[in-house]
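I hope you will forgive my troubling you with a question about protein structure. Could you please explain, in whatever detail you think fit, how the structure tokens follow from the sequence? Thank you for your consideration; the sequence and its tokens are set out here.
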Amino acid sequence: MRTTRFLQPILLASLIAIGLGSAHAQTFSLNWNPRSGDVWVDAQLADMNQYGARYRDPFIDEMVRYHAAPRDLVTDLLVNRRWAPGDIYFACAIAQVIGRPCRQVADEWERDHGQGWGVVAKRLGIKPGSAEFHRLKKGFVPSYDRWGRPIELDADLKRAYPNHGQGGKPDKAQGNEKGNGNGKGNGKGKGKP
């Protein structure tokens, strides 16, 4: 069987997650395919599966602190229900963009995920190419930066973060780095602009 270039990152992430062998690693279905409607987003969600499986606690902390998800929900989805970390991230990120609780989006996904994240997101009001979709996409960058994980930006994100990779931080002048809105950062944003 010939694997398309689109599916290779997803299959690779799934195989790596299966082969990690640590106490925190989980297995994800080889059929896992988020179908967000954006190839770049799908690849990042697959990469998050690797990260979340290997570094479960920092992944959970990210969802709680920066995506307003209840710790018990994220832990239940990841450990008990064996959700892929990419699905957890996307549910919580969508919830944040549309102003609803992560639990509500997770319930929506669990009820009807057969057609993928793109269809679920559209039903929740995030249309392809919309401002909400671009906000959702931009949200990956600060998460990766907080994890110290490299991220390859697509053309849209290179325009949104023109200085990314030059010092490793998003371009804060464009207001793209959002915290949890509580005014308490991690202390790294102080000092020279």
